[in-house]
Amino acid sequence: DSDPVMAQSAVVTHLDRRAVRLLPDAAFGDWARALHSVLEGHAFPARRLREWTLLKAIAGGGSWSAAELASASDWCQRTAVRSPAPDEALALLAASARTRPVRNAAARRLHRRATL
Question: If we measure between CA atoms, which residue out of 11, 19, 94, 103 comes closest to residue 57?
Answer without folding.
Answer: 19
